[in-house]
Amino acid sequence: MTALRWTLIALAALILLVWLAARLGALRGHAPADLGVREGRLKPPSRTPNSVSSQADLHADHPMREYARIAALPASGGAQASIARVRAVVERLPGATVVEQRDDYLYAQFETPALRFVDDVEFWYDPAAQAIAVRSASRIGRKDFGVNRARIEAIRAQLLH
C-alpha cells in the first residue's frame, strides 16, 4: 500500500473513533459543581477562551476578562417575568435543555448534535442592575470559536424583538 492510502485509512479510523466517543458521551464533560449565584456573582469566566460573562469586569485580574466580556441581557417586569422570557427564548434554541429554574435564576445546557459537546449557560436577574447577568461556557476544550458569544447575542436579539 502507498503512504497516501495508509494516511487515509488512519484518518478514517481517527474520525470513526472520535465519532464513536462522541456518541458514547465522552465529549460531554461534566457539569461544574460550582454553578449558581454566590454573593451576587455567577462563576468567573473560564481561564481559557471558551466562555463569556457579563460579570467579567468583577474579576479585574482574570486572564480572560477582555475575551469573556459581554453585556448583560435586558430585563423587564422584574425577576420572575424576565427569567420566564429568557426561558421561552432558550427553549426554542436547538440543543437546549433547561436544568434548573428559580424566580431569579435559570441554568440551561446546550448540546451540539454531532459531537455532543455541552455548554453550561446561566442567567441571573441582578436586582441592583435590573438586568440579567449571564455566563456561558464550554465544558471541555480550550476554545469555543465564538459559539458562546454568538448564542448569547442570539438570545439578546430575541429578547429585544
What topology does this entry show?
Elements: H1 3-23, E1 51-53, H2 65-68, E2 73-74, H3 78-92, E3 96-102, E4 105-111, E5 118-126, E6 131-138, H4 147-160
Antiparallel strand pairs: 1-6, 2-6, 3-4, 4-5, 5-6
Would you kindly provide a written description of the structure presented here, covering whatever features stand out?
The protein is elongated, with a radius of gyration of 18 Å. It has helices spanning 3-23, 65-68, 78-92, 147-160, and strands at residues 51-53, 73-74, 96-102, 105-111, 118-126, 131-138. The chain is an alpha+beta fold. 34% of the residues lie in helices and 22% in strands. Strands 1, 2, 3, 4, 5 and 6 form a six-stranded antiparallel sheet that branches. A hairpin with a 6-residue loop joins strand 4 and strand 5.
Beta fraction of the residues? 15-25%
Number of strands: 6
Roughly what is the average pLDDT, rounded to an integer? 92
| Main sheet specs | 6 strands, antiparallel
Radius of gyration: 18 Å
The termini sit apart by 59 Å
- Number of DSSP helical runs: 4
- Secondary structure class reads alpha+beta
What is the chain-wise order of helices and strands?
Answer: HEHEHEEEEH
Shape: elongated
Low-confidence stretches: none
Proportion of helical residues: 25-40%
